[in-house]
Amino acid sequence: MKHLKHIKNISLQTFLLTIILFMITGCSSVRSDTHREERTIIDGLGREVAIPVDCNTIACVDSFASEVMILIGDGEKMCCCPGGVKSDTLLQEIYPNLENVSVVQSGGDINAEALLSLNPDVILFKYGMYLVPEQKEKIEKLGIPYLVTKYETMEEQIDMLRMIGDVCGSSSKEKAEEIALYYENTIQLVNEKTRQIPSNEKVRIYHTLNGVNRTDGDSSLGTSWIAAVGCENVSVGEDLLTEKDMYIASTEQIFVWDPDIVICNDSPTAEFFRSNDMFSGLRAVQDGHIYNIPVGATRWGQQGSVETFFGMLWLGKTVYPELYQDVDLKKEVFNFYENTLGISLNDEIYNKMLSGTGLRVPSGTSKK
After folding, report:
1. E strand map for 113-225
2. SS3 at position 131
């Protein structure tokens, strides 16, 4: 009996010790790394964040960050990405294992337990999700360093390109710099042409994002690149209904603006404008000026698109053809994909890019 009592006392002591250790460490879901070399990175909010010198496992809770990692040749370090990133066939061609990368978010909600189980060295965290208190709290409780990716202007997007390259390091940093320089050179070319456009001759554009009524606000990437091309974005400066980080224009407001051109985020939305009777009276519909942005490795000019530089060149050639007659868009695209991304294109793929169809498949579907 004394022996059994002794065993019970040891069990009680073990239980109490476990409770004490739990209280000291805070929570079993918080990772604690010791004795690792660190360096400091400045993120999109200007935060100084200490991350490991060598980041071999990077969690991308942001489409832009995921696309950048693949394009700069470091897809194998990416332990998770948003589901939509996995739908692009060209991204799958660059990084064939993309279809097997984990997804730890659904819509705007993060599965913290799934993210923790991947044991990432650093998290690349989308600014729009950072603004949601519940999602920010989930990330901070993990005890894993995170960098906020913010890109509401082209300049911020270029900064994020370089930041992600810095996080990945080595040859990936060089590739990120190469893309950033191409981006900056494209902006310079476009700005030179825009200076030649009289203010009273600027094309008025309505730009849709994921449906008919979601559009650009004052702080949107689309606002930045459309203005750079010398177009008037009709939704900018308007008092629009906002939902989280989205700006919503009513159908009535679209008719009040009566834009010269409508640019849609995808081909189904463009077709909806063309075929639905409710928009038959819109001048852009009557004049046949409804377009959808092309789709390459990303949707050119979408909120998180790495290929915003191609979006600018495409828009310039679409709305100011005489001004951009010296720009060979096809040549630019072919050279970039072959020399920078290591992909040889053909006319069939290029035409699919311009049509905005045929290069995206349901998430998780193999490219084969």
Report:
1. 122-126, 146-149, 204-207, 214-215
2. coil
